[in-house]
Amino acid sequence: MDRANEDRIRDSFNRQALLKTLGASLGAVREGHAEIVAPILDLAKQQQGFGHAGLAFSIGDSAAGYAALTLLELDKEVVTSEIKINLLAPAMGERLIARGRVIRPGRRLLVVASDVYAERDGQEIHIAMLTGTMVPVPV
User: Fold this and answer.
1) What is the side-by-side order of every strand in the sheet holding 123-138?
2) What distance in Å separates the CA atoms of residue 71 and residue 40, rounded to the nearest whole number?
3) pTM above 0.85?
4) What's the whole-number average pLDDT of the chain?
């Protein structure tokens, strides 16, 4: 992946107001893959003190979307057409890590997936899995 594409993705991420509010940061980005990390802040906890499923969904969806964007021309963006989440375990720990990837690229649709892990005491627990479809749109 070239520098212009990575810069475009990082600039796009920096315009994500929700992800800023959640304290999320964009980690590694490479062709067909993107990683987003977010602390489990009090504002993103559910009533039992776990990370809220909305936090896992938000960073999982965005990681999958940025993974798709790595494969597109600079004059394209992506929007989520549909995405599904399977919650596997409670989000207990210090932070969540979402690792998005492209399953099948296409001109009109990109099938994507994302795995979300809770990091607790240096250990990663797989807490959610997302699968979906991204649609390329003009900038």
Assistant:
1) 25-30, 33-39, 95-104, 110-120, 123-138, 76-87
2) 30
3) yes
4) 97
